[in-house]
Amino acid sequence: MDMRRLVGRNVRRIRLEVGLTQEAFAEKSGFSQQYLSSLERGRRNPTIVTLFELATALGVSHVALVAPDDETAAAAPLRRGGRSGTTRNRP
Amino acid sequence: MDMRRLVGRNVRRIRLEVGLTQEAFAEKSGFSQQYLSSLERGRRNPTIVTLFELATALGVSHVALVAPDDETAAAAPLRRGGRSGTTRNRP
DNA sequence: TGAGTTTATCACCTATAGTGTGTATCGGCG
DNA sequence: CGCCGATACACACTATAGGTGATAAACTCA
Questions:
Q1: Closest partner residue to A49 among B4, B52, B67, by Cβ?
Q2: What's the number of CA atoms in the CB half-sphere (13 Å) around residue A69?
Q3: Which residues of chain A are within 8 Å of residue B64 when distances are taken between CB atoms?
Q4: Using the CB atom, is residue A46 less than 7 Å from strand C?
Q5: Average pLDDT of B37-57?
Q6: Is A35 (CB) below 7 Å from strand C?
Q7: Residue A88 pLDDT
Q8: How many Å does it take to go from CA B81 to C1' C15?
Q9: How far apart are CA B22 and CA B40, in angstroms?
Q10: What residues of chain A score a pLDDT lower than 70?
């Protein structure tokens, strides 16, 4: 299991659900937009403290950021669940 | 919430439940006994990849190592549940 | 008491987490 | 087309995570 990718996917998904841009998220969390970018793309290996701070800024439990997603067991051809377009947040 | 302490407590608790010494755990996980010692005492800030490797060596999900424990909400005076002595594992 | 086992602490080193600065790419819109 | 908002990429830099080795407690038991 690639933890970097897992956390990256969770962070991005939740950030979009909350309706934040990387920039706005950077503002709230205190991390740089560049860091968040590479983090979401699974290139980074954050510490647990970082994980907690990210979760707090997103308003979710830190457990949510390490929660396994369906993709792991995936290879499933049928894509369940909506939210395909994510609508590229418009305030 | 102090993530270092939280993870440290979880690791120690599970390691003891599994019945491993720090030394044996070090052997299985590939980390040094010294590192595991400081980790369990909340002095270390492990990365998510480290977290996953620790969980794997313990035979549990990585989520178990970041799971919040009762101690947080604690200040509860009454100690429920047995297992007080931990019996200092005898194989 | 003293040997054996387990855990804690100290000194030290290398690899990398995370920053700052700057730039590149991409989509949409006037 | 050029501009703008949003994301990706690159690099030098500092603080610290990860790791080793030696050793000091701390506890167990013959």
A1: B4
A2: 20
A3: none
A4: yes
A5: 93
A6: yes
A7: 35
A8: 43
A9: 10
A10: 70-91
Residues A73-88: tens digit of each pLDDT: 444 443 343 333 333 3
> Domains of chain B by range and CATH?
3-64 (1.10.260.40)
Cα B43 to the chain's mean position, in Å?
Answer: 13
- What Å distances lie between residue B50 and A59, A81, B38, B57, B65, CA to CA? 25, 32, 14, 11, 11
Write the residue in A46, A63, A68 that is nearest to B66 by C-beta: A63
Smallest CA–CA distance, residue B91 to chain A, in Å, is 32
Over 50: is that where the pLDDT of B60 sits?
yes
Q: What is the ipTM of this complex?
A: 0.79
What is the dihedral angle through the alpha carbons of B7, B10, B12, B13, rounded to the nearest 10 degrees?
170
Residues in CB range of B54: below 8 A, 6 or more apart: B11, B29, B31, B39, B46, B62, B65
Provide DSSP, A25-62. Answer: HHHHHSS-HHHHHHHHTT----BHHHHHHHHHHHTS-H
What are the Cα distances from residue A33, in Å, to A4, A47, B12, B64?
17, 17, 36, 30
Whether CB of B84 is under 7 Å from strand D: the answer is: no
For residue B77, pLDDT beyond 90: no
- With a CB cutoff of 8 Å and minimum separation 6, the contacts of A14 are A58, A60, A64, A65
